[in-house]
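User: Hand in any protein.

Assistant:
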Amino acid sequence: MRVAHCATITTLHHYIHRWFPSSRLLPHHHHYRDITTTTTTSTMASTTIKVCANLTTMFPERGPLASRYAAAKRAGFKAVETSLPYRESAEILAKELQENQLTQVLINSDPGHIEGGEMGFACIPGQEAIFKDSLDKTLTYAKALNCGMVHIMVGLQDKKHTEEEHMQTLQKNLQYAADLFRKENIVGVVEPKNNITFPGYFLNDFDKAVSLLFKINSPHLRLLLDFFHLQHICGNITQNIDRLLPYTAHVQVSQPPQRSEPDTPGELDFVYIINKLKSAGYTGYIGAEYFPSTKKTEDSLGWIKKCGLTF
């Protein structure tokens, strides 16, 4: 649903009921400050927000993933995230992480065979066992990397099944994941992806994502707010920060439409967006999930200082 307008709403609860009238409220966010990264209380704009490098998209000039940890360290990063860690062993990546004294903030769940068109299994009826196996593999990596957050890849819509069948399967599998992550002290996040960049990805709507959070009602399942996808799906950035941030555990940035670094020419003003996140109380990491427009990734990092962020 593209938001066309927004009335003035005086309280958070009124705001939630305005946008999600059929859903019950998630548990009060203050209960989850130990495992989530936002607050619903106001915060001074001087709040410091840290950036983590996405090693799947950044430092491609350094070669294989394992070599990118040292490059991130040399560039000044203290934390990283990885979309596709599964092409190298968990032991090798853990060694690089430890030697470079980096923190692994997030990994994606095992998506299956990306080159073959797989993007996860959580929504696909009949593939529940495959989804559970993929989570077991994901947990092996998460534990090796001491990573406390997992982006659950939902998967592509299967034309043999209805929308409702996909949604029922997704809810059941996300409930399973939330229960599993609770035992491991991990936060799972779901990310709506736009169907321009990722045709057929089932979770392509932020309202659907928040509806699932309401239904599952677990502090171990939150939202990943990626501004590249938000702009493509529905835009209206200011109002959507206000309505989505209470459920958000992680943020990612890149400049639409090219998915380059945030200060390249494009559709969004990230100085404004970061200041809005600060004033709204976000205190988690900003994941730099972009493809550098420069030959050397280090030459693409000027936006961090411009936006008032730190490593």
